[in-house]
Amino acid sequence: MARRKKLYEGKAKILYEGPEPGTLVQYFKDEATAYNAEKRATIEGKGVLNNRLSEFFMSGLNAIGVPTHFIRRLNMREQLVRQVEIIPLEVVVRNIAAGSMSKRLGIDEGTQLPRPIVEFYYKDDSLGDPLVTEEHIIAFGWASQQELDDMISLALRVNDFLSGVMLAARIRLVDFKIEIGRIWENDYPRLVVADEISPDSCRLWDIETGQKLDKDVFRRDLGNLADAYSEVARRLGVLPAANVRTSKPKLIN
Question: Rounded distance, CA 103 to CA 97, Å?
Fold first, then answer.
């Protein structure tokens, strides 16, 4: 399709104006970042994998009645999505202690949590995306109490869906991050899952071996990131042959 006006470029994606009012074209880049972009590299094929995987997850959520911004995939790197007003929060659901939770609370990584825990982080790279409480969210007007309750409900429904899908692929869903946006209908906002769902935004461990199949491979220098994402795609049947050209990551200075 013809290239349209660029509206926004982030670390992993570019948003262009869509072909119809209220739509956007979301383009998946090959760049990988970690530690608030302090570590960066180009991973050939990563954008193709994340586009296909996010399509798979978002389509699955739509099919079970969990609303998302996803409309359809356009090509190997682009998808058509609804334009939404993003709530400035990252919503994280944790099933197993890992990453910042383990460091923050001194819990051994890999500890099964007594129940899924929902956390909120304020989206601001300059502040390091700090953890915030529900009181902060209400006090600063980032979301209403009703929206907060709906966000928690949406996040837990996504967790149920993803956990089941991953379990069938012999993958443990450790935690994941989603973003949620508002779509306005007759002056009333409706919340939908936005951005992407991919190994970039999830922690995924092989059930038998504990092998990491997510961005921690890049964060911790554990191997080839595209190979890990290809394995997830293969197990889910998204790319049965995992036929994505990959190469060693190219560091960006």
Answer: 9
Contact at 8 Å (CB) between 89 and 120?
yes
User: In angstroms, how far is CA 59 from the centroid of its own chain?
Assistant: 14
Largest Cα–Cα separation, the chain? 51
Identify the residue whose tokens are 């989206």.
Answer: 123
Q: Domain 85-206: what homologous superfamily? A: ATP-grasp fold, B domain (3.30.470.20)
Query: What CA–CA distance (Å, rounded) separates 78 from 50?
Result: 10
Tell me the C-alpha distance between 250 and 40, whole Å: 9
Helix (H, G, I), strand (E, B) or coil at 40: strand
pLDDT digits (tens, 9 = 90+) for 162-193: 999 999 999 999 999 999 999 998 888 999 99
CA atoms of 92 and 219, how far apart (whole Å): 18
Q: Rounded to an integer, what distance in angstroms lies between the CA atom of residue 215 and that of residue 32?
A: 8
